[in-house]
Amino acid sequence: MMKKARPKRKPTVSHLLRETIRERGMTAYSAAKQAGVSVDAVQRFLNDERGLNLKTVDKLANALDLTLCNDD
User: Fold this and answer.
1) For residues 14 and 45, is the Cβ–Cβ distance under 8 A?
2) How far apart are CA 36 and CA 1, in angstroms?
3) Tens-digit pLDDT profile for the chain (72 aa)?
4) Which of 1, 23, 42, 46 could pair with 32 as two cysteines, CB 3.0-4.6 Å apart?
5) Which of 48, 47, 28 is nearest to 38 (CA)?
6) Chain-centre distance of CA 19, in angstroms?
C-alpha cells in the first residue's frame, strides 16, 4: 500500500527570514545587532518560540534590505 503524499506547507515567516539571514552569510546575532533589536527576540522568533512586533520586523527588514509588501 502506498503512502499518501502530504500537502506541502507554505514556509513560515520565521523560516524565510532564517533562510535570508543564512543566504547573506549572517547569523541571527549579526542581523539583530545590525537592526538594533534584541538578539534574544530574534533568536526566539527564528526558533518559532515567539512572535515579533511590527516595529521589530520593520527594523529587521530594513537592515536586511527586504521589502515586506509593496506600497502600491
Assistant:
1) yes
2) 54
3) 677 777 778 888 899 899 999 999 999 999 999 999 999 999 999 999 999 998 999 999 999 999 877 665
4) 42
5) 28
6) 7
